[in-house]
Amino acid sequence: MEQGPNIDIIKFVCPPIYKYWTNHRKLKEDLNSLVSKKDELQSGKEDIELRLSVELQLEKKPRKEVENWLKKAGKAISEAQDIEDRVSKVNCLSRASIGREIDGKIQEMIEVHNQGSFPNSLVIDAPSNRVMTFPTPELVGETTVKEKIWAYLMGDSVFKIGVCGMKGIGKTTIMKHIHDDLLKETKFDKVIWITVSKEFDVIKLQEGIAYALNEDLSKLHKDKNTWAAILFKILEARKRYVIILDDVWQRFSLADVGIPKPTRGNGCKLVLTTRSIEEARSIGCEIIKVEHLPEKEALDLFLNNVGRDLLLIPTLHSTLKQVVEQCAGLPLVIVTVANSLMGEYDIHTWNNALNELKGHKVSVKEDFEISKEELIEYWIVEGLIDEMGTRQATYSMGHAIFNRLENICLLKSCQGGTHVKMPDLVRHMALYITSTRYLVQAGKQLKELPEQEWKGDVEKVSLMQNNIKEVSFGTALPKCSTLSTLLLQRSQLERIHESFFKLMKGIQILDFSYNVGIKDLPDSISDLENIIALLLHCCTCLEYVPSLAKLRALKKLDLGGTSIKEVPRGTEMLVHLSYLDLNAKSLEQEIPDGTLGRLFRLQYLRLDKACAKAK
């Protein structure tokens, strides 16, 4: 039997079949190995990326070798995935070729994986590219304050500093100078400046701090608690930094923002500028108050900005000094006014500027000081303070309000703390806000009522400390249905016309105190049924007060220091009276029986000892 041809056929066919089967089996094994190495490299890459994301939060940048490795690993993984996708589509003739490609990619991924071992840090320090200096005017007069702040920053006893003072006083300018000086110091590694302003927002503050640290929190979920935790970790790791928060209006918690507590251990400091001492105290700041510039320093600052060549013009000297005086020692106002007058040499221009400044100031006596107790009494009768159970409790509330107003620089204490006065800028703003409803012309040396300015819808009028001998209107009496308060104390009054109160039926507060020329009050006062305070203190010549029987709403009656000889008729009808001063030595008659007994709301009663004969 002949077998030659069959054997030849078998010899010819079997080797290719064996080789095909061998290649198929090896390709499957190689593909499994490829997928395994690809997954290992992917895991290693993800581990490195995770480590990197943590270390980059500390204001660092990736090492170049790490960046290159991540690119190389990503490329190898992508190419391996491409091979895996192509395997299912190759024919038998291509298997050997793709098998060799798989072998090569496996070796490449093994090498890349071995190169991805970074036992040390993945990052290096990033150069700070967000350091800024401020264009700042020359400091004049505030150098003492600056030196005090600087001493606290350089020392090891104070870690939180509150720079306080009213708007325009120079807080921000001082801190800009200090900021720029700190950039030259080696004590701190980082100086962060954030402008907070009135619309306080924790998220915005956190974004500002992160930006200063070259951090981007926007990649994270926008949640202030999450951001606070991240910032806390970043700042806690850094140490030796100063954070300056400019123009803080509201109290806040350092922890809520993510600012670690500055301590001697971490070498950190916090400075904030604010108008409110209370806001600074709320986070434990050492308080530094910035005061108005003294006269000499104010003049120096003005001349530095307007140009000292003006001193060569003698005719301007007097007006120039008056202009500076009108700026009230406020650096911001001084610089603004000086810049507006730079290059002006005409006396008429300067006189016009002076008149404008005077016109913008509040029409009350300059630097007027008022007793705290007197002001509290006004607040009580105006209903601005709720009357407590006792006058002592009410006064305590009043003094607490004073403390608050002083702490936010709206009032300034004087005369050993018994009196207060209002800064010029604050008076200007107060009168501007109320100008359509209030008429205030105190201390203006007026000799008669300002009838042209006295509008029919005015609510409050203050004409105290003038030279108005007689209170009356001309033929056209204004309709004063909205008038609630009239202050005419210390105005040299001698006579009040009978018709004066006929169109003031709604008036609630009348103050004629310290008008020593008044001898009697018009009977028309008896019809002021809405009045709650009638103040005639130290009207030493006053002898006659008409019946008060219809003044049932009256809460305060002050006749102390007058010359009345008897208690006004109808006093027993004043059942809402809580304050009664009858300390008049001229009283000749006893207080009528039962009068005081009916005044069951009385909290304050003052009588002359010789006349205290009430039964």
TrEMBL record:
Transmembrane portions of the chain: none
Keywords: ATP-binding, Nucleotide-binding, Plant defense, Repeat
UniProt keyword annotation of ATP-binding present: yes
Pfam families, alphabetized: NB-ARC, WHD_DRP
NB-ARC domain location: 144-308
UniProt GO molecular function: ADP binding; ATP binding
Protein name: NB-ARC domain-containing protein
Highest taxon listed in the record's lineage: Eukaryota
Organism of provenance: Acer saccharum (Sugar maple)
Family affiliation: Belongs to the disease resistance NB-LRR family.
Span of domain Disease resistance protein winged helix: 366-430
Gene Ontology BP terms: defense response
